[in-house]
Amino acid sequence: MLMTFFNLQTPERVFVLKVSALEIYNENVIDLLNRESGHLRLLDDPEREIIVEKLVEEVVKDIHHLRHLIGICEAQRQVGETSLNDKSSRSHQIIRLTVESSLREKSGCVKSFLASLNLVDLAGSERASQTNADGARFKEGSHINRSLLTLTTVIRKLSGGKRSGHIPYRDSKLTRILQHSLGGNARTAIICTMSPALSHVEQTRNTLSFATSAKEVTNNAQINMVVSDKKLVKHLQKKVERLEAVLRSPEPSSASYLHIKALRQEREYLAKRVNSKLTVDEREMQYVKWEIPQGGKQRRLQLVNKLWTDPLNMQHIKESAEIVAKLVGFCESGEHVSKEMFELNFANPCDKKTWMGWNLISSLLNL
Fold first, then answer.
1. How many angstroms separate the CA atoms of 130 and 139, rounded?
2. Which end of the chain has fewer beta carbons closer than 10 Å to its terminal beta carbon, N or C?
């Protein structure tokens, strides 16, 4: 399967395989690719499930690189000797392979398909009377059994599609990390091993009971589409750069740019004349009426930006026309503009002539 994956690269899509590995030893999470990072914390993220903080994730170059990384994980894992096993696993191990498929950068698409494969090797349950464990080995066995008991409880609560009551994912680091694999967006396969020896009949019975419950768990696997933060930022940066370039060096024939430039000049021109052409009372009354903040910056420009913003409101149309008439000198402060002054018909715009808006003002100001 992995050999097939490394041959999947196409002109349209790029595939990336990443690997991370951890062990849960005495309920502490340890990075098997970087043990020096110490005990790692688990963080909740509603979009990305459970995150293991500072966990190293290596990009796999080829099959030989992957085997090398898995070899490092096996060498770093905690093992110890007991009466039953010379190399007994003293921790649970999780190796996660993450495959990301995305369109190549030239397509401009920022969404990717994402899938993860969790390979989990659980330490076996132990009886101290059989392993003759004491000291550190006894402590390790206690943590192993406790986490396996939590896993069994979670599986039983999820079995049969009941999912009733509280499911104690957070009672163990193991179940918390594997929460979505156990009862969410995943397809899960479990391999149970047991001994035919009569001395282990109790453990064998418990294992078969666990396997029976696990078979009844129903998950809902879905296609995962994600947006990489880096890709999104890069995409937005390019869009900003493109828009800034248009503003810096617009095409002479760009009608939209010329229109925007004219509007900007008109509004700046009118804003400069607010103080000189309107009385203090007129300004303050209009600020209050159009809900312009008392101590806000550039109140004059905010007032001008409110003009003609409600073309279906006849009162607003009249007020806008009167203010503009005073600002450009068609009538003095305190006077009311006549209907004929702007060749306006103050009937509802949707019933009569085309909305006047800022276009007529451009011709009046000769901008």
1. 15
2. N
pLDDT tens figures, 98-127: 988 877 766 556 677 888 889 999 988 777
Residue showing tokens 């509280």: 166
For residue 175, count CB atoms less than 10 angstroms from its CB and return exposed for 0-12, middle for 13-18, buried for 19 or more. Answer: buried
Tokens 């989990």 -> residue: 120
DSSP secondary structure code for residue 236 in this structure: H
All structural domains of the chain: 2-227 (3.40.850.10), 253-365 (no CATH)
* Residue 25, CB-side half-sphere exposure with 13 Å CA sphere: 19
Cβ neighbours around 159 below 10 Å, total: 17
At position 18, the amino acid (one-letter code) is K
> Are the C-beta atoms of 117 and 17 separated by less than 8 Å?
no
**Residue 289 to residue 79: CA distance in whole angstroms:** 77
3-state SS assignment for residue 247: helix
Q: Please tell me what DSSP assigns to residue 202.
A: H
Name the β-bridge partners of 227.
111
Q: What is the pTM of this model?
A: 0.59
List phi, psi (to 5°) of 276. -85, -25
d(CA 30, CA 177): 13
**126-146 pLDDT tens trace:** 776 777 767 888 888 889 989
Place of tokens 């312009």: 292
CB atoms within 10 A of CB 166: 7
* Separation in Å, CA 154 to CA 69, 149, 158, 173, 218: 31, 9, 6, 13, 13
